[in-house]
Amino acid sequence: GFIGDAIADNCPTIEPRNLRALGELNKLRDYALKQGYEASVVREFVTSKAEKAKFKAEAADWLKAKGAEPGNEAAYCAIGEEEIVKESLIGYLLR
Length: 95
What we know:
By secondary structure, this protein is mostly helical. Helix content is about 75%, strand content about 0%.
């Protein structure tokens, strides 16, 4: 999700599919609950600023490894288009 957000934020021709992203987040929540995690623990994890920062950093590292850096719209667009064509989860969250 964070990778898709970064692509959509940095590429003017790609938009996020917010409803799909929400659906995937709900699937993860349901999976965690079925694994025995309490709803309060899942909610705390999802709203944690520290966890968000950690995953945004991981997304930035992944994108940088693919050649994308802030200010390089063309790189973000190329990665986004590639993920859409590959029909990856990242691509599924973009249009």
